[in-house]
Amino acid sequence: MVNTPTISKDNIWSILETVTDPEVPVLTITDLGIVRDVILHPPLGDGGIEVIITPTYTGCPAMDMIAMNIKLALIENGFQNIKITSVLSPVWTTDWMSEDGKRKLKEYGIAPPNPRQQVCNNDLFAAAEAIQCPHCNSHHTHRISEFGSTACKSLYQCDDCKEPFDYFKCH
What we know:
Layout: H1 9-16, H2 29-32, E1 35-40, E2 49-53, H3 63-76, E3 82-86, H4 99-108, E4 141-145, E5 153-158, E6 164-168
Parallel strand pairs: 2-3
Antiparallel strand pairs: 1-2, 4-5, 5-6
């Protein structure tokens, strides 16, 4: 006899809270705020589960892996008929990240996004934001490159401890 899992939004969300980001494995997809909704389709319809996700960047290469990992996590918990829908509007923003996720980023050595942009300038390579070093907490840092290990991060270096670090860009 096959165990039928409890189909509830709370149960699905608790499973999604275990799915990690492939690029920053200390974060879950719920920490990132990329899961927009969970829809339970009624049994008279297709009876499936639909998970709505929004990429941190349009064309983010991790989204295919994230969608696959969501499906695998749900299948491992006994669910079938799973649909992952990616939506681009509204556009994802770092405001959707959890405070716990921002804390995890800092502990991992990546500066979390500032609450709001510190320097208002539309030029791509203009003055950098005041970014706090995740290693020594100094604000004496400078941007080395607008693009870090992934498109959603910039590369910085601390002028005090001299350590390089990624900054999860605010957007």
